Amino acid sequence: RDRLFNISADGLCITALDGVLKQVNPAFCAMLGYPAEDLRDRPFTDFIVAEDLPPTLAVLTQVQQGATVQQLENRYRRRDGHHCWLSWTVVPFLQEGLIYCSVRDVTQSKRTAEILYQYQRMVSATPDGMALVAPDYTYRVVNRSYCENLQRTEADLVGQPIAQILGDDLFETISRPRLERALAGQQENYQGWFDACQGKRQFLGITYAPYYDSAGAITGVVVTTRDLTDLKRAEIALQKQAERETVLARITSSLQETFDLHKILADAVDTIRTYFEADRALVYQLQADGSGQVVAESSRAGIASMAAVTLDDACLAEPHRIQAYRNGKVQNIANVATASLVPCYLAMLQRYQVQANLVVPILEGKELWGLLGIQQCDRPRHWQGEDIDLLQQLSQKLTLAIRQTQLYESLQSTNQTLAYLANHDGLTKIPNRRYFMETLAQEWRRAIRHQQPVTLILCDVDYFKRYNDTYGHVLGDRCLTRVASILQQSIRRPADMVARYGGEEFVILLPNTTCEGAIAVVKTIQAGFQTAALPHRMSLVSDQVTLSFGVACHIPQAQDISRSLLQRADIALYEAKQNGRNQYHLAAANGDGLVSLSEQED
């Protein structure tokens, strides 16, 4: 018996009537993660989670009072700090004063049940109708939304054939073909009108998807329904307005052709005035101080123009009037003469011959950007509801155009900034090596076409490592910035370029420049540094910052590559440094050296 006790896959233990563990098998120890010696002579209740202890103690009391076999499940604290669920079968032997227990770990099943419960709650709460249909076309499971879509209860549906619920015609023409294809492994979609109970008519979107069991076999179809009635009705309403939408499309087509806001607004007011056969159409932009300006206007011949007119009338800037427009107010005046208007506003309209006025706000988010208006100046005019609707829609289009224009301008500015950052050195703000190499390639090709010389001056700050070690990197950076500035001031032509080549090394590109011209530039640079007198007490050639220069000049041929000119300037720079620094060296006219030597340590 002891051998069977120890090799059993189930957890087995023997306790005293008070719950003290007397004997445990290895399977039981593994469930709690303790060795047997840590469990024996301890009440098994010591390991129970506090919330589960009361019902467990109640069962133990019943056993002590003579109850027969008992079942209980509770949570236990494992040695590793995690919790596990254990299911106990308790068999008391009162004459022996012992309780024999068989224990199974049901943690996974508990977790699975909890996940299933959460999934059921989620499915039940979703607004989409969901149903599981068996291969015999009966309902297995339905959620609340599915029942609501069909105006039925769960009891009405589960176990019932779909044909009985939907009717034979609907089942045979719509449901059955799609269910068959879903059972064959395809996913099907359908949209259509359905007449539910109590005269309710719905437009539903339905998806039929195969349902696979754990073995991968198709055992049913998941039917998902979504109520699209509101969307469908909106679609129908839009279709009824197709003619007006066509007109609106013509009116707003120019908004998509350019990012020039002035042109967009000008085209818009021209089209609006023509379509409405009005005397004037205008866009009025509100300013921060409450005044405003007519930024776009189209008017009939003989009507006083308001284009570019600034309207600072106090009536327009009244807070309540601005707030009303901000809240979406539409001003609809069929007859200015009989309308109830404050005198100053009436005078402003009459000043510009306005007899009928229709104005809608142009809103940028929650802010009032301006106003869009159409005016009749030769007679009163009753504005129709569709006129208001169309003008409001056009205002929204103008709002979109304004946003797009602002976004485009912002994007252009950002692109320019990014292009600048990509092509310029972050410290000195002059072109970087990448931009220099691109420019050199362009100038090289131009020089080949026109057979003109290209000259490079490669220069290096003498003993800059000593400068950094003496003054620190912060002052070293300032020194490089000053060096870049002096170099930049030494060139005159737009095509000339100063770039930071790397570290303390700079390069000057001089298109269509002879060696003599380059030497003149070098001397100008040297004079600039003498004037600047930047201190460098650790330099071995001067007590001021100096540069060494390598000059290379060449009229390129078709087979030549620009990098060879760089290498010749590099070799010349090395020679200048080898000869004592603070000087220039001119590369040989046909120098063939291709090995860079200027990367030597100071």
What does this structure look like?
Mean pLDDT is 87; it is low at 591-602. Helix content is 42%, strand content 24%. Helix 18 crosses helix 19 (515-532). The protein is of the alpha+beta class and 602 residues long.
**Which structural class should the secondary elements be placed in?**
alpha+beta
Helix content: 40-55%
Shape: flat
Number of strands: 21
Low-confidence regions: 591-602
Look at the structure and give the mean pLDDT.
87
Concise account of the structure shown:
The protein has 602 residues and is an alpha+beta fold.
Key terms:
single chain, 602 residues, 6-stranded antiparallel beta sheet, 42% helix
